[in-house]
Every structure is written in structure tokens, then in C-alpha cells.
Amino acid sequence: MKAATSLRRLLKLTGPIPGFTIKTGHKLAAYTEISIRQRTYTSRRRGGGVADKTQVRVMNREIFHANIESESFARAAAMRDGRIECTSLGEVDEIEAGRVIVRMARNAKIRNKYREEIRKVLYQYKILLGERRAALAKAEALARLARPDPDAPETLGWRAWSWDPAIKRLRSPSYRETIWYTPEMRAENWKDAGGVRGHGGIHAARMPIDWRRASVNGTELNGYGEIIGVVERFGNFVLGTMGWRAEWVIIRSLRAPNSRIGLELERAYPDVEVYYDQE
């Protein structure tokens, strides 16, 4: 059960919970009430013609309501906790909803009166919190795998492509007209002058610690295509701190986002080793 759903269920069971205090650091917040309320929204719309009448639409919506005695503290709480003083339950973050329940449980009067209901909700919140922490730890681990590998050969690099399902070939994400009909690509109008980025050539980032498992989030490859792979450079090149550009490269390995594209990659580039993401 989600924390926001649990919070809704708890407040429907208990009804409005009367005033209680929460200590946050050196400040003491006084909640005068915490409850579920019905709010009516009215929208008016007029048609385009002269004879058209104004249409009135009335909607009832449940909102999560928590009055805070101090207006200045309410503003601080809104910034820190995400509008918990008055917000739609559908928009409440799951962790935020759990934090509200934890705050309620810290008050002895509320805890003793609604012990069983709070116990069930807190159990679900702990599961949610554990799942969130595990997901964050996994994301951090994948991000570490994307860090440049100091021991990787400088001739190798990783980069991204877009997949064209119509012609079943890779496209360069920055220059869409550039199609990789074979694993080999040579740059036209090569110039040695200039840095790595913003100049002509085939670009690649420095090899990460584990390119097969690394996440591109937070790297310069993020948003540049769904196909990730390793290329090897030959001939002229310009080397930078984060990557390189070269006149001539060959694709050595590719990472497919799913089995369908993976099989198409194998058929399009039979000499390239294709790996599959976990689906």
C-alpha cells in the first residue's frame, strides 16, 4: 500500500486529528488540525458563438489539509516538505506522506489513541523507504560504473546512437543524416585544428569502468540515443580530457536496449559483438 494511500486511509479512520506539536531542530511547529477535506472547484467556459452560453463545471476533490499555527513556519515547512500544509493527496510524494505519518506517531496522545492504525501504516512506510533507498543505492552504483577508467586504452571510447527502425541502421544523434551502414565510419573534411567538442570528426567519450552495466545518466551520453557501444579509433585524432574525436573509427561492441533491437543489430552488423540490457 502506498504511503499517500495509507495516509488517506488513516485520516478517514480517525477523522480530523486535533492540534499537536512537532519539534524540528530548534523550532516547534504547532499543527492545529490534520485531516481530509472536500474542496469544490468551479470552472467556467464560454463558447465561441454569440448565442453560446457559459458552461459551468463543478468538481469535488479530496485534499490533504494540515493547518500550521505560525504562518512564517508554514512557509518554511512548505519549502522543506513540499506543500504539506495544504495539498492534493494525489500530488503528495510517497516519502513526504510517510514523513507526515511518522510525525503524527511521535505525538504520544495521537500514538496512544490510534496505535493500531499507525502501526500498520508505518510498516508499509518502512517497506517503501527501504525500496527507495535500495533504488538510490543501485542508481549510485551504476553511476560509479560510468566514471572514466584510467586503465582503459586511449584508442577506445564509448558513444551513443539512435536506431532507425525503417532502414534498420544506426544514426548519429547529432547529425541525423549520418547513417552507419557498416561498423566503419570515416569523417569528411577532417581538420586537426580545434578541440574535441564542436569540431568535425567521430566523437566518443572516455571508456567507463564498466560500459556494459553503466548508466548514462549524468554523463555526456545522456539523451543522445538508446544504443550504447564501444568504438576504436584509427588514423588522425584529437584527444581531450573527457574523450576524443577521430577521423576513422570502427564499432567493436554494442549494447541493445531490448531483444528485438538486439537481433536487428546482429543482422545489420554481423561482425560486431552485441550485448543485451536486462529487460
Write the layout of secondary structure elements.
Elements: H1 3-14, E1 17-24, E2 27-46, E3 54-68, H2 71-81, E4 86-88, H3 94-106, H4 108-113, H5 115-145, E5 156-164, E6 169-171, E7 179-180, E8 184-186, E9 202-206, E10 227-239, E11 243-256, H6 259-268, E12 273-276
Parallel strand pairs: 11-12
Antiparallel strand pairs: 1-2, 2-3, 3-4, 5-6, 5-9, 5-10, 6-7, 8-11, 9-11, 10-11
Q: Kindly state the percentage of residues in helix.
A: 25-40%
Residue-averaged pLDDT: 75
- Describe the main β-sheet briefly: 8 strands, mixed
DSSP summary, beta strand count: 12
Question: What order do the helices and strands follow?
Answer: HEEEHEHHHEEEEEEEHE
Shape: elongated
Q: Write down the Rg.
A: 28 Å
Low-confidence stretches: 70-92
- Number of continuous helical runs: 6
What proportion strand? 35-45%
Number of domains: 2
| Helix vs. strand class | alpha+beta
Terminal CA distance reads 25 Å
